[in-house]
Every structure is written in C-alpha cells, then in structure tokens.
C-alpha cells in the first residue's frame, strides 16, 4: 500500500520560530510537492522537487524553503514563522513522467501564535 | 496562468439523487484530476483524465478538451459521499505540480 507520511498532524508554534515540516514517501517517487490549503483559497503550490537536491518554486514560495537530501524525504522549512503561515500543509508525491496520479499525505495543521 | 473554476461551491442533496459537479479551466492542459477530501484533511485521487470519460463504481468523470470543461457525476448518492470534491489540472509536465479549483462541499442527507 502506497504511503506518504507527514511528521505531525497538528503543530503549534510561536511567531519567529523556525519550523520544519517533514514528508516521507515509500514509493520511490521522483517528484514531491508541498501545498498549503486555506479556506476560500483552496490548495496552492509552495515548492516542488523532481530529484534529490533539486527544487523549484511554486506559486507562493515566499517565506518558505525546502530541502531534499534523500529521494524519499522532502522537508518544508519556515525560517521565521508568521501568523499568516497558519494553514493546513499537504505533501504529495508522484512518479516521473508527463502526468501521473499524485499521492497525498494526511496533512499538518500548523498554527502560528 | 491557468485558472480553475468549480461550481457549485456548496451542494446539499438527498440520498439517491444524481450529483453533478463542474470544472472549467482557461488554457490547455495535459491532464485533469478529480480529488476527494474528507473531514480531517486526507486527499484521495478519484480520477485522472486527459480525454473522454472514466467510470469507477458510482462515480463518472468526463472531460471536453475543446470546451475546457470537465464534470464529475455521482449516481445514487449516499451520505458517505459527503466530502469536498476538488478539480485540479496539470498544465505542463508531471513535475510541475497541480493547479486547484477551490472545491465543492457536498453534503448528502439521508
């Protein structure tokens, strides 16, 4: 059974803290993605990676960075958390190719106080 | 940038009704996805299509490339179908990530 896991379901942090959200997939997928989901705005792409150590900005990369040191793991980093980064964060992965089904993690609901 | 519009935003129906959710997009795509999200956040892929029609159980997805429009139909709806249904598109290659509609919140009442 394919699986994408995220390090936490719920996380509460304070403004200015450095926050790490981790995503691990066990499907040997090349492509990994970080999205955030907000009421009224839907899901939006923050960053994606198509290979180890490769990263590309998505639609809303400001305030975030990512790291992909191993194929199975893709980390989202909030260098200095702010209240407007309170959101649901979802990780997804897919195999390389023109288009393929994306597999989503369960999500991390982050609250920044 | 490709825009994805879904309608309706909210839909409440009685058990057994035929449900249709619509999705339109502004420029050409390589694939369109229908996703389901239950309360609690988990997202599951229902369909991925680039042409024609696909069916899985009581769910049917269609796409009209010329009209840039897709529909998701649910036949004989059931309360367990209550969820948010999200349309998403690949505009470029598979590594580029998805662009999402805002979702349709469906409630099926017994």
Brief rundown of the structure:
With 113 residues, chain A is mostly beta strands. Chain A has strands at 4-6, 10-13, 19-25, 31-38, 42-49, 56-57, 65-70, 73-78, 87-94, 103-104, 108-112.
Keywords:
heterodimer; A: about 110 residues; mainly beta; four-stranded antiparallel β-sheet; about 0% helix; about 50% strand; B: about 110 residues; six-stranded mixed β-sheet; five-stranded antiparallel β-sheet; about 55% strand; globular
Straight-line distance between termini of chain B: 41 Å
Order of helices and strands of chain B: EEEEEEEEEEE
Share of helix of chain B, binned: under 10%
Shape of chain A: globular
Tell me the total number of β-strands of chain B: 11
Given helix and strand content, the structural type of chain B is: mainly beta
In sequence order, what are the helices and strands of chain A, one letter per element?
EEEEEEEEEEE
Average pLDDT confidence of chain B is 92
Helical stretch tally of chain B = 0
Kindly describe this structure:
The complex is a heterodimer of chains A (113) and B (110). Chain A is mostly beta strands and 113 residues long. Chain A has no helices and eleven strands. Chain A starts with a strand and ends with a strand. With 110 residues, chain B is mostly beta strands. Chain B is built from no helices and eleven strands. In chain B, strands 2, 4, 5, 9, 10 and 11 form a six-stranded mixed β-sheet that branches. Chain B is globular. The model of chain B has no long low-confidence stretch (mean pLDDT 92). Chains A and B meet through strand 4, strand 5, strand 9 and strand 10 of A and strand 4, strand 5, strand 9 and strand 10 of B.
List the SSEs and their pairings.
The complex is a heterodimer of chains A (113) and B (110).
Chain A: E1 4-6, E2 10-13, E3 19-25, E4 31-38, E5 42-49, E6 56-57, E7 65-70, E8 73-78, E9 87-94, E10 103-104, E11 108-112
Parallel strand pairs in A: 2-11
Antiparallel strand pairs in A: 1-3, 3-8, 4-5, 4-9, 5-6, 7-8, 9-10, 9-11
Chain B: E1 4-7, E2 10-14, E3 19-25, E4 31-37, E5 43-49, E6 52-56, E7 59-64, E8 69-74, E9 83-90, E10 99-100, E11 104-109
Parallel strand pairs in B: 2-11
Antiparallel strand pairs in B: 1-3, 3-8, 4-5, 4-9, 6-7, 7-8, 9-10, 9-11
